[in-house]
Amino acid sequence: xxxxxxxxxxxxxxxxxxxxxxxxxxAPMMDWTDRHCRYFHRLLAxxxxxxxxxxxxxxxxxxDRARLLRHSxxxxxxxxxxxxxxxxxxxxxxxxxxxxxYVEINLNVGCPSDRVQSGRxxxxxMREPALVGDCxxxxxxxxxxxxTVKCRxxxxxxxxxxxxxxxxxxxxxxxxxxxxxxxxxxxLKGLSPKENREVPPLNYQRVYELKKxxxxxxxxxxxxxxxxxxxxxxxxxxxxxxxGRAAYHDPYVLARVEHQLYGEALPERGDILEKLxxxxxxxxxxxxxxxxxxxxxxxxxQGLPGARGFRRVLSERAHRSGAGIEVIRSALEHxxxxxxxx
Length: 342
Hints:
Elements (H helix, E strand, L loop, with lengths): L4 H9 L10 E3 L8 H10 L4 E3 L3 E2 H6 L2 H4 L9 E6 L3 H14 L4 E5 L4 H5 L10 H14 L4 E9 L5 H14 L3 E9 L6 H4 L7 H10 L4 E5 L5 H7 L5 E4 L1 H5 L2 H11 L6 H17 L5 H4 L12 H11 L8 H7 L10
Parallel strand pairs: 1-2, 1-9, 2-4, 3-4, 4-5, 5-6, 6-7, 7-8, 8-9
């Protein structure tokens, strides 16, 4: 159910009142939040701030920038997440992002993978807050759009609140107005990226404490948030909430959050797919394989009758040569329950 009027007013006047663009965000997720995923998520969440997969500053300097930065106006507001640790190179990459139409540049200081560490970016940079500050300052000088940072609450043995406090102070001194905090520490050795999302315990209280100490900083909480009710509870103490894996595996949660926060009517899942079909047809005409789009749709009917058949049809037929929108329509035949239910 939507929030009662008095709760909605309390939230509007609470921590997030001055930072509404970041009230609801969908996390940058490697190999998942590509432009097709973001288009689909926008249909479910008209108010959400979307984020790209991480793109390295080196890739933008030496690779196919047009392909790496491609997105549609329909996705907006959408932010570009960058990975890197060289201030001048990041500044150039930020300019490319602004010129491409992104509304925010986000620096990844939270990914713990070995590949990211070998490039000296991601979570390992939490050990070098002065360098991160230099990177942020260089990007801020290069663009007019917001430059934000996504980090962890700590890394390895460096996980006291004082360490996060010091890192945050460095970020604000460099001009960061928005800090996205994954409420788990990262272990750079011994845990896989997947384990780093599950094994270190969540510590939401530490993020709340950070907000109290830095009241003028927009603080967004990330990690382990899976329901609309949880989003509402976090927003009583924090400026915004970023959903990650839950928004991918059960994307309809985005519609539920929109319903709770903004009073949006719960859409029928079938109607969402109908609205997606013109995009699919346009992409197919440009040579995009259907499987690159439908892989993001598999969780839409999560927990409902027919969900298994829906997934099976998409998984078995979307990869075939010449597959078209008839595959999506066929998958829908397995789902007869009211789409706005549950």
